[in-house]
Write a structure and sequence with these properties.
A hairpin with a 4-residue loop joins strand 3 and strand 4. The model has no long low-confidence stretch (mean pLDDT 87). The protein contains four helices and four strands. The two termini are 24 Å apart. It has a four-stranded mixed beta sheet with strand order 1-2-4-3. Helix 3 crosses helix 4. The longest helix has 19 residues.
């Protein structure tokens, strides 16, 4: 877990990134919890399936975006896409090391899989 920051900023919120114990009660790889403002990821994925780890982290950040930017189920596609674009721009602006670290993990995964 040394490769990723302990928190990332999403909108006005500092979202923690912590470990989700492997084999949790509902067999998931990650989750986002708005009330604790945290993302949990099964860090075993990082060792065994780095691309899935990155995919899962992006997925959970997507949930954090959905919550923090106030996207609603009934919103139209263009509003959702516009909000997500602005949110990803903000995330990479305010968390500059996040993408570099994820790219490093994906390159490492590619190198070890060949």
């Amino acid at each position: 877990m040394t490769e990723l920051p302990k928190t990332i900023r999403v909108s006005a919120f500092d979202i923690s990134i912590t470990d989700l114990p492997h084999g949790d009660e509902i067999n998931r790889w990650g989750d986002f919890n708005a009330s604790r403002q945290g993302i949990r990821i099964d860090h075993n994925l990082l060792k065994n399936h780095p691309a899935k780890y990155v995919d899962c982290l992006f997925h959970e950040i997507g949930h954090a975006i959905y919550w923090s930017y106030g996207i609603l189920d009934e919103d139209k596609e263009e509003r959702v896409v516009g909000a997500m674009a602005s949110a990803w721009t903000q995330i990479f602006r305010d968390n500059p090391s996040l993408l570099r670290r994820m790219q490093k993990q994906l390159k490492e995964a590619e190198r070890t899989s060949t």
